[in-house]
Amino acid sequence: MEEAKLIEILKINPASIKTIHQPTDEMKLLAIRKDGLVLEYIDNPTKEMEELAMANNTRTIKFINNPTEDMMIKAVKDGWSILQYIKNPTDQVIRLAINQAGWAIQYAKAPSEELQLLAVKKNYDALKYIKEPYESVQEEAVKISYEALRYIASPTLKLELMAIKNNEAAVKFINHLDKPKMLAFLKANILVIKYIIREITLDELEEVLKEALSKEDIEEKYVRDFLNCSTIDRHNHIMPIDKMIFIYKYGSKKAKKIAVDEKLKMI
């Protein structure tokens, strides 16, 4: 078929380049201008062809064997997910993708602690894409959201306590929830009681409260949460505790001061 006819065909269907035996450079450039992705069918493309393909469609980068860093940056700026098509991205390119979405970490091979932290700070659930997250990365994700706990295969008690303190609902993501853990969680966040009330006796709860409320460095939130917790109440047949009297008997000076202040708010 004569060259003029082939060129007309390429104008209509640039993908036809793959069926043409030994296409000329003119044909290749024409096809690429129409659709950058046809670079896939061009053997040994010139740098001009690669740059032209990139200008047409940045996803073309997956067909470029040794893209320049400028090409990588241009591609990732068009969308963080394009990182998956880049064979050997530099740290700068990975960082650029992660700054758009933490989930881009899934396309980084053996990411550094710095990149992992950057990813979870951007999107805490990027943690699910990190095979071996550093402890600092796990902690950062849990600080942002207790739900990050679901993406940690074997969390330490320290991590679990961080999540519980962040939000009592984290108890739903705790595996192997035994009695010692329950008691430890209650000391960190009294509101956990609403999830485990059937698993704890009144005596066990009172011992936890005595220990927690007697501390001089007790956090204000803990005291206020205790006083406002409807699960624990003198009228509750399961956990009948008169909270103000309990703090008066066992609370530290600080706990009593917070309790009085909270009581005044209720008046």
Descriptive terms for the model:
mainly alpha, 0% strand, 3 domains
Give a summary of the structure in a few sentences.
With 267 residues, this protein is mostly helical. The protein has helices spanning 3-12, 25-34, 47-56, 69-77, 91-100, 113-122, 135-144, 157-166, 179-188, 193-196, 202-213, 220-228, 243-250, 253-266.
Walk me through what this model shows.
By secondary structure, the protein is mainly α. The chain folds into three domains: about 1-65, no CATH class; about 75-175, no CATH class; about 185-265, no CATH class. The protein has helices at about 5-10, 25-35, 45-55, 70-75, 90-100, 115-120, 135-145, 155-165, 180-190, 195, 200-215, 220-230, 245-250, 255-265. The longest helix has 14 residues, at about 255-265. The chain is rod-shaped and about 100 Å long. The chain starts with a helix and ends with a helix. The mean pLDDT is about 95.
